[in-house]
Design the sequence.
């Protein structure tokens, strides 16, 4: 396999918005080149995780090597490197772009360019990638390739005269795409003689072989007999095997500069072989690692607690196992008087958080209570110390604090301009500072705001989608910390502070959030045998209160002819419901109540 | 364990279906009559099935309580009731002084048919009054008026005074849409003024598929809120206690000596036979309900007849006892509550187990015990009237949690 001259290698990826048909197109390419026979074709071959297939999005990227007989009669090797399609994983995207020389920019021929696509195109342009515009779904009645081409030209500044019109569904244009990859994307540079540098663009954990690392050789070569050094983690390994993805793994002896492959070396956890790290040879190392390596930093935090305290060890084990395959997942034990033992977990973003929760519940059969997401606050103390707080309940008392700073993001929203007003209202509501508004075409607009991350990680995305009937898309990145007048809002249930419900809010919003919270809790917490006061407070000052009146009566139904089956069913249902609750201040609180902060905003 | 000494017979026929009702009933129209009127064929063929159902069962021992419920059993003619009782008597025999109850609805019988029922051997009646207010009766979809009701009460009371009737009950529904404290109090005082020796009082429940369920979904009905309904139950107990009634069971009040013996069987853990469409039987701890529709009931009966010489008893092991949580659920409906020591015998607990398990039960019940909603006397636990009984579901759920932790099982 390694006898392919560099001139006949092509490495490329696909940039597309979530539902613009990337996975289907990738499937078509595999089929067209005979890499995967139609018989073995599962739909969306590259999306391996069940979750991905269910949601129709790519979370973990994959790669595949295809052999293609081009019109010049030569056989070319095409490496398709799939990229994740979500803002949470933009670091992974940038790494996989570095492993390519070109990209297919896939745009839905009726919907046009979306925010996430644009962000990734800019990344690709920064990496000097050759970009081939592809208009997908031209078979659909609503498609308008000419209009979309103009849009691409005016927004991105790409020449679309040679754009390919295709339909991954019907197969139209697929051969043209493959030929364009060969013709337009440059081959890798021939740098086999230099010291070895290979870039890790993905890795996953295999319980039998340890971590499997996907990499692109940029300079030099790697053979099975080599000892390798990972330059960032400073760990060295003897190789068990190297190979190519065809797309199933096939062992080879050697991989040269320009090629894409995998290696297995009994690596214990993906954190030892992080995306972006540089592989070199232990005996003949490169002088410098490749640029751009950073460790994934969690931005969103929440508490995970088992409903059944006995499941705590299981939860720890499950998190340990997940971390083997997810280097971005961070967690540490958290104890709360109300919730018992659990973990404070850090995630790249909301989607990442949801995925982890879902995997814990689905794959590990755990029942969890999840607290509302939070961000990291910088707290400047009067004594000059600076604290990083990711759990609102641990925010120090006001008399000890000098100021609080919170993370801000620059957010770009793309939407038809009909929705301008409602979107600006949303951003304003969430304490956003207006930066710019640009018309990208006559009827589409970009809104740019600087906005506290805390306001984005709640339900911003859902709100944006629902206010624009799903037409808006967004992209954000961290721009730094800013001082704000923030306060800790506590919730007291039956006069006991409920840590998991504590939030940090802007002082101006504290009253309305506090009022909304106790009202929502009154709805969500079932009546008990006694009266329950609910209060929201800042420090010792109560700013809102409600109470849940005591349950005073059950219905006395007729157990007709001694038939108690219905009664028993009802009682068992109640007993089961109670089991899914956490007891706080002697009050049974259901799971939904812990997300009350999120639900609050749904009213506005 | 002994053979059952009680039998429930279900007569599914009604003039029409009331707006709150989801029982297995067959509406026959407002002019239906037992032997000759419209619907009489349906009644006749059903009674044939009922006789076959009774014949299928092993003979057992003579019965001490019989309850003919419905539906509207008073749609049967006196002679139909008589022959039904004859069938039962010739199969099981009746004990001396057996309590034989018939459910009757106003406007479904007259003075003469009432005499006929009593001649046939009925000695206790349960009158489905529900309300004395014509507007309420119309809202409930009942087929009788308050005049029909008052007339029926007169006839019954006359027979009761003459000693032809051992006892009778008047049934009321409360917690109705739009009902307030005064309206309910008026109903209750009216009922007491008629002087029945027994009152059954139920809360309206909204069941799926009923007219009321649609109306609730459309937001047309405003049911009394928690506070009001608690006040309604509080004055119910107050007023009735003052009038000499005792709440011997969660939904039943009686003057001394007039508690329904049949009703007490249901909550004591004893066995009873159940015959007819949708009827529940409880045989040696096994609750079993016959199919709720005529067609399925008939098919079930035919299968039983062909496959089993011993009838429905074949598959039941007589050593089985009623699950303790069932005994607690039903036992706590009674004024005297449940006796843990007695219950523990059936479970084979040692004294140590009895003590630790009872201690844990008391922990589960810590709050209601502290508040005095459950009282303890020796090994006996009982709900107080009205507080304990009004939140019985909560207390029973706490009991189920205790039982679950004891067994390490979970309910799914």
Sequence:
């Amino acid at each position: 396999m390694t006898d392919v001259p560099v001139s006949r290698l092509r490495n490329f990826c696909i940039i597309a918005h979530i539902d613009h048909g990337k996975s289907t197109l990738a499937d078509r390419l595999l089929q067209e080149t005979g890499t995967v026979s139609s018989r073995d074709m599962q739909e969306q071959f590259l999306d391996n995780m069940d979750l991905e297939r269910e949601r129709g999005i790519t979370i973990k990227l994959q790669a595949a090597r295809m052999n293609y007989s081009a019109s010049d009669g030569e056989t070319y090797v095409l490496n398709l490197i799939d990229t994740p399609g979500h803002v949470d994983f933009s670091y992974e995207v940038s790494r996989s772009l570095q492993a390519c020389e070109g990209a297919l920019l896939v745009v839905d021929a009726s919907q046009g360019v979306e925010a996430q696509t644009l962000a990734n195109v800019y990344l690709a342009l920064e990496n000097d990638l050759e970009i081939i515009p592809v208009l997908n779904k031209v078979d659909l009645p609503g498609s308008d390739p000419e209009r979309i081409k103009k849009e691409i030209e005016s927004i991105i500044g790409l020449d679309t005269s040679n754009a390919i019109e295709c339909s991954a569904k019907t197969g139209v244009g697929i051969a043209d795409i493959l030929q364009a990859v060969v013709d337009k994307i440059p081959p890798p540079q021939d740098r086999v003689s230099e010291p070895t540098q290979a870039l890790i663009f993905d890795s996953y954990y295999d319980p039998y072989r340890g971590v499997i690392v996907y990499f692109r050789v940029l300079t030099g070569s790697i053979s099975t007999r080599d000892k390798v050094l990972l330059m960032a983690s400073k760990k060295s390994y003897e190789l068990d095997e190297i190979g190519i993805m065809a797309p199933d793994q096939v062992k080879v002896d050697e991989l040269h500069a320009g090629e894409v492959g995998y290696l297995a070396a009994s690596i214990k956890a993906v954190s030892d072989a992080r995306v972006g790290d540089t592989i070199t040879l232990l005996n003949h190392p490169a002088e410098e690692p490749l640029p751009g390596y950073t460790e994934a930093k969690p931005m969103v935090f929440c508490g995970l607690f088992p409903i059944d305290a006995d499941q705590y060890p299981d939860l720890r084990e499950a998190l340990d196992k997940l971390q083997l395959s997810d280097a971005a997942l961070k967690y540490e034990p958290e104890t709360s008087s109300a919730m018992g033992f659990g973990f404070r977990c850090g995630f790249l973003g909301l989607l990442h958080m949801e995925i982890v929760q879902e995997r814990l519940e689905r794959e590990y059969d755990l029942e969890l209570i999840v607290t509302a997401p939070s961000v990291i606050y910088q707290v400047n103390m009067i004594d000059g110390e600076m604290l990083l707080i990711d759990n609102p309940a641990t925010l120090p008392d006001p008399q000890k604090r000098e100021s609080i700073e919170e993370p801000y993001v620059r957010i770009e929203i793309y939407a038809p301009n009909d929705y301008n007003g409602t979107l600006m209202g949303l951003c304003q509501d969430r304490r956003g500072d207006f930066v710019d508004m640009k018309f990208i075409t006559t009827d589409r607009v970009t809104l740019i705001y600087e906005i506290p991350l805390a306001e984005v990680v709640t339900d911003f995305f859902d709100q944006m989608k629902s206010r624009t009937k799903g037409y808006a898309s967004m992209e954000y990145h961290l721009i730094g910390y800013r001082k704000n007048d923030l306060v800790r809002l506590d919730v007291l249930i039956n006069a006991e502070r409920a840590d998991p419900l504590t939030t940090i809010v802007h002082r101006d919003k504290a009253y309305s959030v506090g009022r909304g919270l106790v009202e929502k809790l009154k709805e969500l917490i079932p009546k008990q045998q006694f009266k329950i006061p609910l209060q929201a407070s800042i420090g010792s000052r109560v700013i809102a209160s409600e109470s849940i009146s005591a349950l005073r009566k059950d219905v006395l139904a007729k157990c007709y002819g001694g038939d108690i089956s219905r009664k028993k069913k009802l009682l068992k249902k109640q007993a089961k419901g109670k089991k899914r609750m956490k007891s706080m201040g002697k009050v049974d609180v259901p799971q939904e109540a812990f997300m009350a902060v999120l639900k609050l905003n749904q009213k506005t | 364990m002994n053979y059952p000494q009680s039998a429930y017979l279900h007569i599914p026929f009604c003039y029409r279906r009331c707006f709150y009702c989801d029982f297995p009933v067959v509406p026959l129209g407002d002019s239906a009559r037992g032997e000759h009127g419209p619907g009489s064929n349906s009644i006749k063929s059903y009674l044939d099935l009922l006789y076959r159902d009774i014949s299928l069962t092993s003979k057992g021992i003579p019965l001490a309580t019989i309850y003919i419920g419905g539906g509207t059993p008073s749609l049967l003619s006196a002679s139909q009731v008589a022959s039904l009782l004859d069938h039962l008597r010739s199969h099981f025999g009746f004990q001396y002084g057996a309590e034989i109850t018939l459910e009757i609805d106003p406007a479904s019988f007259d003075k003469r048919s009432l005499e006929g029922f009593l001649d046939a051997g009925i000695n206790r009646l349960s009158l489905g009054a529900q309300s004395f207010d014509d507007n309420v009766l119309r809202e409930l979809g009942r087929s009788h008026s308050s005049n029909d009701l008052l007339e029926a009460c007169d006839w019954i009371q006359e027979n009761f005074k003459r000693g032809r009737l051992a006892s009778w009950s008047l049934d009321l529904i409360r917690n109705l849409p739009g009902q307030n404290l005064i309206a309910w109090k008026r109903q209750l005082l009216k009922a007491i003024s008629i002087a029945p020796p027994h009152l059954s009082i139920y809360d309206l429940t909204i069941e799926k598929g009923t007219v009321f369920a649609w109306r609730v979904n459309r937001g047309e009905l405003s049911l009394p809120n928690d506070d009001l309904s608690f006040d309604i139950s509080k004055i119910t107990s107050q007023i009735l206690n003052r009038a000499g009634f005792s709440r011997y069971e969660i939904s039943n009040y009686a003057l001394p000596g007039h508690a329904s013996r049949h009703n007490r069987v249901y909550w004591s853990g004893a066995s009873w036979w159940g015959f007819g469409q949708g009827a529940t039987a409880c045989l040696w701890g096994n609750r079993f309900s016959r199919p709720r529709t005529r067609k399925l009931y008939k098919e079930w009966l035919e299968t039983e007849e062909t496959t089993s010489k011993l009838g429905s008893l074949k598959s039941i092991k007589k050593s089985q006892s009623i699950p303790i949580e069932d005994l607690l659920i039903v036992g706590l409906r009674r004024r005297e509550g449940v006796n843990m020591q007695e219950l523990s015998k059936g479970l084979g607990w040692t004294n140590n187990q009895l003590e630790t398990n009872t201690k844990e039960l008391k922990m589960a019940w810590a709050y209601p015990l502290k508040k005095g909603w459950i009282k303890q006397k020796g090994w006996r636990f009982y709900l107080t009237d009205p507080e304990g009984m009004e939140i019985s579901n909560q207390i029973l759920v706490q009991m189920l949690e205790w039982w679950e932790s004891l067994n390490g099982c979970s309910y799914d």
Observations:
- The first helix of chain B runs from residue 40 to 56.
- Chain B has a mean pLDDT of 89.
- The two ends of chain B are 31 Å apart (CA to CA).
- Chain B has two domains: 6-268, 324-407.
